[in-house]
Amino acid sequence: MTELLKVENLKKHFPLQKGFLDNLFAKEKRVVRAVDGVSFSIQKGETLGLVGESGCGKTTTGRLILRLLEPTSGKVVYGGKSIFSYSKEEMRRLREKMQVIFQDPFASLSPRMTIGEAIGHPLKIHGLAHGKDAEQKVMDIMEKVGLEPASFLYHKYPHQVSGGQRQRVVIARALVTNPEFVVADEPIAMADVSVRSMILELLIRLKEEFDLTYLFITHDLATSKYICDRVAIMYLGKIVEMGPLKEVFSKPVHPYTSTLLAAVPVPDPKFRRTHPIPKGEIPSAINPPSGCRFHPRCHLASPECSREEPPLREVGKNHWVACNLR
Ligand code: SF4
Q1: Is residue 296 part of a domain?
Q2: What is the mean pLDDT of residues 174-203?
Q3: Of all protein residues, whose CA lies closest to atom 6 belonging to ligand 1?
Q4: I want to staple 237 with a disulfide (CB 3.0 to 4.6 A). Which of 21, 57, 76, 265 is the partner?
Q5: Per-residue model confidence (pLDDT) at position 210
Q6: Does the beta carbon of 147 sit less than 6 angstroms from any atom of ligand 1?
Q7: Element (H or E) spanning 152, and its range?
Q8: How many helices (H) and strands (E) does the chain have?
Q9: CB of residue 305 inside a 6 A radius of ligand 1
Q10: Residue 118: is its pLDDT beyond 90?
Q11: Is residue 166 part of a domain?
């Protein structure tokens, strides 16, 4: 497998918005450490799952990779150089190759554009097709994502179709430029339970058909099982465990991964949970805990854990864990 993309020590700290006087007299600028030193690579053709609770920094990481946000520091290397040093023209060409499927299809579609116009919009922006040619490309992709009859749905507005169809519109819009890499940010979170598995199956089929590479962002570890080749578990702006899906699911090493796996619902009324649920709430990213960020919630924490920040260490083939005990 060839490496498609590499993320190196990526950080995004958002300045905390305060009043004028607070800013004037503040000894140091306070920041939200949304992403705080994340590194990983994605091989061509694989699906990497970025998994974690709300607020762990996974969506911000996805947006940095697409350069929808500028980083505080770090690199995203694509095509041999960091995208943060790409010129405007290079970025425009790159956006054809890197696309995104947003979580909320209703919010990401203009209510004034028909479905056909919305899907064809990227073709117009990138100058890839016009007129009848663009219309035919839109019809083709609509059929591929299951928006049929395409000629009928083409003229409908987003509010005139179902939630599942809107999600298919967003997928079609992401794929119409024939990209090679797609960030799928919680693509099934807003869909009805009845259509979630269909959308997942569609994403899996389209990956093969279009030779795609995915970064699949989700808060739900159970969902990653159906689509990912590898998973990276994020906690408070950092990756705490990363490895092949089967290995992480069968032999989780980090206590946080174990608790996430233990929280996956089991369809058996007699099943009794044995693994402890983490104590308390996820701490603030403004002032994260010292040492290991998980230590206030970890049932295995020792005094050393609050002093030393564990680096990611390889504990098995391509299996990395950040924990002082391993
Ligand atoms: Fe728990 Fe300590 Fe490991 Fe952190 S380093 S996960 S606190 S045992």
Answers
A1: no
A2: 92
A3: 323
A4: 57
A5: 96
A6: no
A7: helix 150-153
A8: 13, 12
A9: yes
A10: yes
A11: no
Which neighbouring-strand residues pair with 76?
7
Which CATH number fits the domain that encloses residue 77?
3.40.50.300
- CB atoms under 10 Å from CB of 240, counted, come to 25
Question: In this predicted structure, what is the pLDDT of residue 18?
Answer: 67
Report the C-alpha gap between 275 and 277 in whole angstroms: 7
Confidence of residue 83 (pLDDT cuts 50, 70, 90): very high
In the chain, the number of structural domains is 1
Three-point CA angle 227, 62, 262, nearest 5°: 50
Atom of ligand 1 nearest to the CA of 300: 8
Q: If you take atom 7 of ligand 1, which residue's CA is the nearest one? A: 295
With H, G, I as helix, E, B as strand and everything else as coil, classify residue 67.
coil
Encoded amino acid at 283, one letter: P
Give me the sheet containing 73-78, strands edge to edge.
31-43, 3-15, 73-78, 81-82
pLDDT digits (tens, 9 = 90+) for 235-289: 999 999 999 999 999 999 999 999 888 877 666 666 666 666 677 778 888 989 9
300 Cβ below 6 A of ligand 1: yes
Section 307-320 average pLDDT: 94
